[in-house]
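Annex B. Sample input.
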Amino acid sequence: MSDTRAARRLVVALHGYGGTGEAIAGVLAAVGGRSSGADGDTVIVGPDGSCVPAFALGGRAWYAITSHAPVIAQRSREAAPAVAEYIERLRRRYQVPARQTCAVGFSQGASVAAAVLVHSSVCGRAVLVCGRVPGGDDQAAASRVVDALVVTGGRDRFVRHDDVRSDLASGYLGARARHVVLPELGHEFNEEVARLTLAHATSDGVNDDR
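Annex B, continued. Sample output.
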């Protein structure tokens, strides 16, 4: 990335297990955003996870795959600091305040994006798609307001929206998280989801002091 001109918004997209940052950022850019370093109000970037997945050749992961909610919560908290540092570097590079920075996560990336939102001050909002967002025994969000859009799919064979509702009921993301169920959505980050994501990421309605 060579362009350091100021941007109005920053969107950092975290892929799912076996995915890549380039792929998820590309979907977002294709529906009306801007790729990294391009002219325009919004800069979209997609980092790659630090782990090499055991069951998905050619992609990356944020942590070793698991379906056990407490383990998801723990591993997401462990992955979050490095992602938060990455976002902070981008914010300085593109001169974007935290309140105009959005962490987007798909599948496994959703739990990491949620942990970044809750445990750091680098972003003011998040969009969490087709992924569990368990807090485990962590209630850090109870002390402040966070802004999150949570999207699940009625045809998702891997993440049930009832499980995500249970995650949200724990209070981990506070009281402002909005949960949207798309009846025809499978376990995917498609153009419909990208449009919802960018609408939330670029909204002027978030009230956050950071």
